[in-house]
Design brief:
heterodimer, A: about 290 residues, mainly alpha, two-stranded antiparallel sheet, about 75% helix, about 5% strand, globular, disordered C terminus, B: about 240 residues, alpha/beta, about 25% strand
Chain lengths: ~290, ~240
């Protein structure tokens, strides 16, 4: 039961990371590798503000990752818009590496650590089953965020504009959707999602170093490809599947867990062979991928 | 004063020039047809006016204000709306959601409900199919949705790029009938069409574009003169 809960918990975390990436991809057709650094900065802030009440520490972390997301949009991506996807992609690589080096200068190359929310590392017994609090909190938090995101996307004007822009940004603009505002909003929301991801990971792994967010971001990218990069639901589902499978593989492979990534990517290949555009693929998915 | 005035407009894609020195003007409640063979720059002209493409030179003014080179989202708020070629409805969204998006560029949000009611009266199919996915509508219904969506921004000028594309003849007559009602409400309409006879007989004036330039101007009476139309359209001798 704990293994399943852990898998759901990790799947949920990856779903949030994938959703952040998918939001930006939807409006800008950009795979934002610097999303990793948004996760990292939130984790750093949570560690260095560990003495503060948890909620305040998290709010500062969310503020930092959101501001950083907006600043990267305004200073880098907005200037490069229209230059083509290859240049934008390379810029996101460059930004990612540049931010990692900046973190190294600011926080040092060695990991910074602090026990963030230590009460979450304990366990509770529910119906004769022993479960870790962190997994329970992560699952609950993920459900709440995914419901909130679902509401935002399905029932608000911003969500409607995001869905329209993801489908056809040119036509959305012809109808009056303000491109700059929508793109900046997407980056801001992805920054908030990155803060939640940073929080969840730093509770389990309080050793924060400059490449802290890279692993989950790369795997979330795999998730959005297998889920269906053209749909936010597909992104979240793909992220969840990757996290879920990876967690189960790590649990059940025993000493062979070093091959967990091999099995994961084998599953990814099989999924893509069957559904080249991703599980929730749409009409134009091939062109978009 | 002209509602829409295009003067000496040149535009293209990168280093490729497509339009050269296009000029025309349009009054409120009037219609202008634009015809010409494939690839002569008709759609490019509409895209340039609507802000999708930046003009290389020349001016475009709407109600006396320059809109050349402005963003599409600002131009729609200034009072000009484009129904793009192929309708470009959001097929994954419902009819109602498509209409709600049409309200995005509307300046006066207090009259949104009235505007929605008006387009639903003009196109009753939008009410009966309100909750349906827009992609499930027929071609004619999608065209009606695309026109309604554009009307919801309260445009003074409505641009339509090939509204008859892929539609059955009876549906085309339906759509053009609705356009007459829209023009009667003082909205100026610019229609790009391949069907020269249809648009020439419909519009108050029709310009023929070939090689990126205006080659002829036609009146509704000219629609009956096959030879004149052929000559204007293809540049062939009469």
């Amino acid at each position: 039961m704990q293994s399943i809960l852990d898998a759901i918990s990790l799947g949920g975390t990856y779903a949030l990371a994938a959703l952040g990436l998918g939001l930006v991809f939807g409006v800008l057709r950009l795979v934002n590798f610097a999303h990793a650094e948004l996760i990292t900065i939130s984790a750093y802030i949570m560690v260095v503000t560990n003495d503060l009440p948890l909620i305040l520490s998290f709010l500062l972390a969310a503020l930092a990752s959101t501001l950083l997301a907006i600043v990267t949009e305004l200073t880098v991506y907005r200037r490069l818009r229209g230059t083509g996807p290859a240049i934008m992609l390379i810029a996101s690589f460059g930004l990612s590496v540049g931010l990692q080096k900046s973190y190294e200068l600011i926080f040092g190359a060695l990991p910074r650590s602090a026990a963030v929310a230590p009460w979450m590392t304990g366990s509770v017994e529910i119906a004769n089953l022993n479960m870790t609090i962190s997994s329970l909190v992560t699952v609950a938090l993920t459900i709440v965020i995914l419901i909130a995101m679902g509401y935002l996307v399905d029932y608000t004007t911003l969500g409607l504009q995001l869905r329209a822009a993801s489908s056809d940004f040119k036509t959305a603009r012809l109808l009056g959707v303000r491109s700059n505002r929508l793109i900046t909003s997407s980056f801001a929301i992805s920054g908030v999602l990155a803060a939640f991801v940073g929080f969840i990971i730093v509770v389990e792994n309080p050793q924060v170093e400059p490449m802290f967010g890279l692993n989950i971001t790369i795997l979330a990218l795999v998730g959005i490809v297998i889920g269906g990069i053209s749909s936010l639901r597909g992104c979240a589902l793909g992220g969840f599947i990757v996290g879920f499978i990876l967690s189960l593989l790590n649990t059940f492979l025993g000493n062979a867990r070093v091959y967990a990534y091999s099995y994961l990517f084998l599953a990814v290949v099989v999924i893509l062979l069957v559904r080249p555009g991703g599980i929730l693929s749409k009409r134009n998915e091939m062109e978009r991928v | 004063m002209s509602l829409l005035k295009v003067e000496n407009l040149s535009a293209g894609y990168g280093k490729v020039d497509v339009l050269f020195g296009i000029s025309f003007s349009l009054l409120a409640g009037k219609s202008l047809g634009i015809v010409g063979p494939n690839g002569v720059g008709k759609s490019t002209l509409l895209k340039t006016i609507a802000g999708e493409i930046a003009p290389k030179s020349g001016s475009i003014s709407l109600q006396g204000k320059n809109i050349a080179g402005k963003k599409p989202e600002d131009i729609v708020r200034a009072g000009l709306s484009l129904v793009p070629e192929g309708r470009q409805i959001f097929s994954g969204l419902t009819v109602t959601e498509n209409l709600m998006l049409g309200l995005t560029g509307r300046k006066d949000k207090s009259t949104s409900k009235i505007a929605l009611e008006q387009v639903r009266q003009l196109f009753p199919v939008l009410t009966s199919h309100a909750g349906h996915q827009a992609g499930m509508l027929s071609g004619g219904q999608q065209q009606q949705l695309a026109i309604s969506r554009a009307l919801l921004s309260d445009p003074k000028v409505l641009l339509l790029d090939e509204p008859s594309l892929g539609l059955a003849p009876t549906v085309i007559m339906d759509v053009f009938g609705k356009l007459k009602e829209i023009i009667a409400n003082k909205t100026a309409v610019v229609i790009v069409e391949q069907r020269a006879h249809l648009v020439t007989s419909f519009a108050d004036e029709t310009i023929v574009i070939r090689d990126g330039q205006i080659q002829a101007k036609l009146t509704p009476e000219d629609a009956e003169n096959e030879e004149l139309l052929r000559k204007a359209y293809f540049g062939l001798g009469a």
